[in-house]
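Q: what does this look like with flavin-adenine dinucleotide bound?
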Amino acid sequence: MITRSALIYLSEREGLKDFATRFSPFKKLTTRFVAGESIDEAVEAIRRINAEGCTASFDHLNESVTSVAEAEAEVREYLNILEQIDKTGIRSNVSIKLTQFGLGLDPELAYKNARTIVADAARRGNFVRVDMEGSDVTQKTIDIFKRLRSEFGVNDVGIVLQSYLYRTYEDAQDLLKIPARIRLCKGAYSEPPEVAYPAKKDVDENYVRVMKLLLSSGIYHGIATHDPKMIAATIDHAQKEGIGKDRFEFQMLYGIRRDLQTQLARDGYNMRVYVPYGKHWYPYFMRRLAERPANIWFILKNLLKG
Ligand SMILES: Cc1cc2nc3c(=O)[nH]c(=O)nc-3n(C[C@H](O)[C@H](O)[C@H](O)COP(=O)(O)OP(=O)(O)OC[C@H]3O[C@@H](n4cnc5c(N)ncnc54)[C@H](O)[C@@H]3O)c2cc1C
């Protein structure tokens, strides 16, 4: 039995990354979760998503860059994305990862690079979501986000919190005081029991606790999950508290529970789909397999079919 942590471990192996990204049959299978390798392919995917009544968040895949030049190339890519969003008229904001902008090399570099993107998005009336990565960078990510938020508005830049971390409820309380727009997710990385709930039941309970805190804050947040129980709890809480459907949004990943995505949009909820694209899909793809190891059988079946 391949476990979640084994798949996450594989997602972090550089050698496998090189092999997988060159192995074309494997690459073909990523289309289930990745919109393509180019901006144009992602724009086309977002047009289809918009036509189904959903908005999107553009994500260029390339986390943990290892040189200043690579981080700067990411800045250029995101400036181009923001320009393409305006040119094509698609309804989309952007999601960034600070390790993509050099957080692993120098936090100041990551801040400056992220600032360039947030400034451009703010000028265009768009919004930047700072994704949350592994717990080794949680505090650094929050610190950089707070700096950005002190310079830009609540509708210019937002952050992500993960319900598997023990610290998240307090982080949410703290960030709401600024105030900040938060995307709540369960968390996709492999974390030790010292920092994160090992049992799914506790992660889910914490998700509901934080979701209630966010929704009742009056600020516009993103409830990111494919879990029907989390979605039902959100709808229930909003109805009981008289929180309108326009006061928050659901968010899901490209290619996952498309039925639920369109259903929620048809029911009048704001639904945003996270659309990743790019050549460096390997760690993202492996985390999606880890979330649902049954996906492995889908991959193997399709590989054997050729
Ligand atoms: C918009 C968005 C942004 C995110 N941003 C971040 C981030 O910044 N940082 C971070 O750590 N994590 C992020 N995540 C990932 C998140 O943390 C979870 O790993 C992921 O969403 C799976 O959790 P779940 O809430 O769907 O619940 P789960 O309990 O994992 O899954 C519930 C159900 O959803 C379906 N499902 C879930 N995942 C898959 C899959 N891969 N394939 C097929 N079906 C699936 C299955 O039916 C499953 O039973 C994001 C998720 C979303 C939706």
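The chain has a mean pLDDT of 93. The pocket of flavin-adenine dinucleotide is lined by residues 131-132, 160, 162, 185-189, 224-227, 230, 251-253, 256-257, 274, 288, 291-292, 295 (CB under 6 Å).
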